[in-house]
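Ticket 4471: requesting a sanity check on a complex prediction with 5-O-phosphono-beta-D-ribofuranosylamine. Repro inputs:
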Amino acid sequence: MALSTGTKKINTAVFISGTGSNLKSLIKFSNLKKSPISIKMIISNNPKSKGLAFGKIYKIRKKIFNFSNQAKTEKEILKLLKKKKINLICLAGFMRILSKNFIQNFNGQILNIHPSLLPKYKGLNTHDRAIKNKDRYSGCTVHFVTAKLDSGKIIIQKKVKINKKDTPRTLANKVLAEEHKLYPEAILKIINL
Ligand code: GRF
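Returned structure tokens:
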């Protein structure tokens, strides 16, 4: 389904598992008057996600789902998203792989942010791998989500220089700072497509 803003903002759900710094930047973006999205819901598979606190701070409904029976849980989530008329899902550090069935049955777009210059370093430990390979640059990517991990069409990327002194942690922090700007840019880009 193509996204169109019209005069109304696009109802958005953000899926998280951890710290939620990208969630925070998306909430700030959505609160701008000119923003095309409105974040209606935060979904997590992890009751300990620090990012859930942003639900309380910004008064956004949050819901935790247990993924031990993923097929059943995904059905419940789809039902909820439909009820809330959600048309956009932003995965932001969400550590579960959504099934093909979920992706096909969601009536809207699903985006993900990944901390590497895809197609390089799909999956985990991207910063560690980039440093070990002595890459000169790393970065981040926002892409459409398909059933194949970190492989959907790329929307936008940002390069980040790797210095000799960088550790996976310092590189992660530099990349995260760029991620916070890149996700809103990606949303603006797909809306203007
Ligand atoms: C980010 O680096 C994101 O690219 C990756 O997981 C991390 C999540 O960080 N998928 P946060 O929870 O948004 O702070």
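Notes from triage: Helices lie at 21-30, 53-58, 70-83, 100-105, 126-132, 168-191. Leaving this open until the requester confirms.
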